[in-house]
Amino acid sequence: MVDGEVDLASRHSSEARVDLRESLEKAYVAHKDRLLTLATALTGDRGAAEDVVHDVFASLIEQPRRVRGGRNLAAFLSVCARNRALDWLRARKRRATPQAVEAVPANNPGRDDPVERASRREEEEILLAMVGGLPQELREVLALRIWGGLGFREIADLRGVAKSTAHARYRQALRNMRTQFSQRTPK
Amino acid sequence: MSEMSDRELERKLRTIRLTTSPELDARMRLLGESADVEPEAADSLGERSRRSHWAVLSRMALGTAAACLVAAAAWWLLTGHEPMGSAYAELAQAVENSQAAEWVHMRGTAFGEEFEAWLSVQPLRGFTRIGQRVSAVDLQTMTAYDPDTRTIRIQPMPEGAGQFAGASSFFEVMMQTINKARENLGAKIAEQDQVVAGKALKVFTVTFEHGSQERFTVDPAARRVVRFESTKADGTPEAAYEIDYPQDGPADIYALGVPRDARLVDLSPLKEFGDLNKRVEAARDGFGPVYRAMVYETEVRGNAHEFMGASVVYKKDGRYRIERYYVTGLEDADESEQLWQQISEGDMAALVGWLKSRRVSEVEFYDGSRRTTVRLDEEGKLKKRRGGIGKPGVGSRFPVEMNIWGRPSTLVTSLLPYVGRTTRMLPPREADSGTLVGVEHVWQGYSMYGHIQNEPGKISQYFNPARDYVCEISEFEKDTQADWQEDKNWLKDIKNSTRDQYHSERHHVLEYAQTSTGQWYAKKIRKQVCYSRSGAGGFEVITLIHVDTTRDIPDELFDPASVKSPAIFEPKSANGSASR
Fold first, then answer.
1. Measured CA angle at B343 (ends B337, B345), to 5 deg
2. Terminus-to-terminus CA distance in chain B, angstroms?
3. pTM score
4. Which of A122, A132, B24, B332 could make a disulfide contact with A50, Cβ separation 3.0–4.6 Å?
């Protein structure tokens, strides 16, 4: 199995159930932060994003056989997170208002200067806020591509659009963000 | 940045990684434990990756003792086969003899490390040594020695460790566990004779459904088990140890080489804590026992109140039915505000009227042992999902009864995911409603593989004895830079520079109400969440609750089969998400 993959083929035996729990634990540790970032990008709400992550794995526990052949776990979890994030958005009637989301500075062992770190953190907060400010169609494609790890074909199937449309929306999202960022006045 | 390419922007975005809060990690752990998996007794020896050092030691202690006793109890498994051949009778007798011994001593290897353990069932206690790590368990506590820090930690036995509640009950639990395993495992048992150093032995090999095996070598002359081995399905050895039966065992962990000048950290529960817990639990048990509760949540945005959701909870004879309404159906802010004003002024009829005009998002049932959730699937058909052991509320969006009695509704007693937990009773706190009694838990941060696994945190809970021990104030905070940490060395090896994390959550019961039978509950709760020390970036939620204990609730309401029509549910779109 690929690291993080879960052998969900059988959960009828007690031994298999113990294996299932251990496999799910590994899957949670392997994917939780990525899914949290994806869900936060989609919802703009950290608390809601944690609920999304929880619900995704709760669903996995209840229905281990949902992982069908040909679909790896990472992609499956991303789609689940996306669906639940959309449920939350629709329930909240929340529109694309950028939220202040605390980002995690990137790992950069060779550049450990505190000023550098603070600068990176600020930049990432800005970037996440900008993602939250994108129109939902663009935001969703961008988030699924960057943090969901989905290919354009998968995103297109999910959205019910052509692959070229998914690609175009992705490029548009990046263009919007680059434009927004270039218009910011440096502090 | 203005000249940044798409590729560069992509790279920057990909490096952004938020980390889950310990609260979520704890919710997931509870979820995993309440899911349909075998209890801890089925765990085997050894460390698990991605766990805290102390959690590893604690689980080692539990796992070792459990493994020893699982191995012993697994022998009982064989006695349940019908018809019982002579081979099984021999092994059964060997088991009885083994259990009758004062001590069971095991020595060998487990998961690639040297291992030694002692176990006695009269009274139940066990000691384990793996390398230089030493642990001990008894009915009340787990003790673990960490050679890296030369520290001994004594912790209370975690909740749910029912197998250690008492020797007689332990074996009853184990028998139930093993019998369940037998039903599902379809284990096959084979016997063969073996001669070792001129001694005639019998080997019983138990092969489980997925191919893993356990082998018990019995000395027929002594009528005792003398060796145990286990292998994974692919043949990889897991554990192998020789077993003998000395008259005496270790008196304490120092007898296993733990230095006497090791630092001692005693996390055993305080008597006052136990007393408070009993009073809180008694108040909870006595609430109701039949009621309908309506719960309404709204987020405060400036002067406006945005509807978040509502639920209706029915309880009767330990059973629950929870109807959840996620979608707002409120088309504009004015409608949301009007509904809030009506409900906040006590007009629950307004909420009832609103609920009647809406369709539910899901209905959850609890029959005293298992949960069933009913909702629509992607095709708009009813979908019933069974699973989850334990009362609804753990990890759910609208925790049942955590609203009625404050949040958390009971004392936080099990914090296994949290390392180095200390507990202290707080000085009494004066409130308008009376004098509150409080308890505080503090835990330390830890990291593994260069990543933060748990931020240090604390939670303080204040209960109101004059209000049936409702949790009036709960304050939670996690802060990687907290000054109250024992030390911050755990941060130094962090690869991703997540050294500045902050999250706080405060629940405060603003108003109380009483049922018609005089039981107190939280009528209005304010929740304040913050992700920065400055207070920026947070949000506030107000929860209103109304409990009616006079209503006659028909029994069929608690039957999942009573939900027959998809029409009562909010329809979903083709891609599986809610339509609104």
1. 105
2. 38
3. 0.50
4. B24
